[in-house]
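Customer escalation, tier 2.

The customer says the design service returned an amino acid string that "doesn't look like it belongs to this structure." They asked us to rerun it and document both sides in this ticket. The original structure tokens are below, unchanged.
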């Protein structure tokens, strides 16, 4: 799905249509995207949820007729609570649970075991200590709160990565070009990432610098590439929720509230690995097409 039109960075709760939005809807309806994928994309771009759904339904009502397969909801609408199985090509991903506020969803089998192992193999040769963005300068620094080793890949850098990115786009309704490069992380015994937010704080100069290259982060997808014997859960302390790392599963969480504010309940942590090691792939999604900082 191409970039959602008509939204300035930081705009919230849009309830006004435009010719650009209408053209965008016509184009993506013709491509076969369904109600939930279109609504999800509009909401993540700052449109009010009720307005987004009404607008999409109205656009579908006047769209040219398509065959039954094309008119079905697009595979992988992350906001569709009724869709328990998301199909992309010949691959099925199952929804295990979903919270509505904030939006947190756990998916089973986003990747198969062979894909997980292949990603780990790709990453081994380029692992380096994982940095974090300095909130004051925007530089990437090493800190004790994050102890993983990581490997960053460019969007579409490898055929396997391109295939996975297309699957993620279908699942979430967020275009592949809105994603940062896939990051593969490895945590050894005792490795952890203490509680943090993935979104950027615009009032902090260093983090505001990150907003120039795709706008705000709007959601995270964490894919578990192995099943460590103990520890390593993804924890949401303000929700009382821990997600165990199981190979092939993925947890998705979005940060934006309906009024456009950032949801502090998405505070999360990678709990210490207490036996074995943990491998994950992280995909951060932006509100606009992403490009690397110069």
């Amino acid at each position: 799905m191409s970039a959602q039109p008509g939204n300035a960075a930081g705009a919230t709760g849009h309830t006004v249509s435009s010719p650009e939005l209408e053209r965008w809807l016509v184009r993506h309806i013709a491509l076969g995207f369904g109600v939930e994928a279109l609504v999800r994309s509009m909401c993540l771009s700052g449109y009010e949820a009720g307005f987004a759904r009404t607008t999409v339904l109205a656009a579908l009502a006047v769209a040219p007729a398509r065959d039954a397969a094309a008119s079905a909801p697009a595979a992988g609408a992350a906001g569709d609570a009724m869709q328990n199985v998301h199909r992309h090509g010949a691959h099925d991903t199952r929804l295990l649970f979903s919270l509505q506020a904030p939006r947190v969803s756990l998916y089973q089998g986003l990747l198969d075991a062979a894909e997980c192992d292949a990603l780990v193999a790709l990453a081994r040769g380029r692992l380096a200590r994982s940095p974090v963005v300095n909130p004051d300068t925007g530089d990437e620094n090493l800190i004790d709160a994050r102890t993983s080793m990581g490997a960053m890949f460019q969007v579409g850098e490898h055929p396997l990565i391109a295939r996975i990115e297309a699957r993620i786009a279908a699942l979430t309704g967020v275009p592949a070009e809105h994603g940062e490069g896939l990051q593969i992380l490895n945590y050894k015994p005792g490795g952890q990432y203490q509680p943090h937010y993935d979104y950027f704080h615009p009032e902090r100069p260093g983090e505001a610098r990150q907003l120039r290259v795709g706008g705000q982060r709007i959601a995270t997808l964490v894919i578990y590439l192995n099943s460590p014997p103990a520890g390593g859960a993804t924890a949401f302390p303000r929700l009382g929720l821990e997600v165990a790392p199981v190979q092939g599963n993925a947890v998705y969480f979005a940060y934006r509230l309906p009024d456009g504010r950032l949801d502090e309940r998405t505070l999360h942590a990678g709990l210490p690995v207490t036996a074995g090691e943990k491998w994950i792939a992280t995909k951060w999604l932006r509100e606009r097409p992403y490009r690397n900082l110069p």
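Tier 2 assessment: The sequence is consistent with the input. The CA atoms of residues 18 and 263 lie 28 Å apart. The helical segments are 19-30, 35-44, 49-62, 68-71, 113-124, 159-172, 205-210. Sent an explanation to the customer and offered a walkthrough call.
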